[in-house]
Specification:
mainly beta
Length: 117
Amino acid sequence: MKKVILTIAASIVLTSAVHAEEYLHGQSGTTYQNIGGTTYGSNGSTSQQIGNTTYGNNDSTSQRIGNTTYNSNGSTSQQIGNTLYNSDGSTVQKIGNTTYGSDGTTCQKIGNQTYCN
């Protein structure tokens, strides 16, 4: 459950100031597809963004205020530049169309799909 919430938080927070695009950093071995504000994961996860709040199919929610995201499990994430700092000590860095997690996962966005390994 923690991984899904982290995925939702990362999908909200990693935005490029230049392109105003969102980048999702998800679970290794999972492909995500975004269709009209809803993200579908090949692992069965779904999340829907409405305004600055994201709702997960596991009853989790995340709300972004400024550069900080507050998750319903009590964790937070803060974006500084192209790096996301999570309250559990993990980080995610965006370079180009790829995100790199401190746990070794990488995700690449191509069109409306994100591939994580």
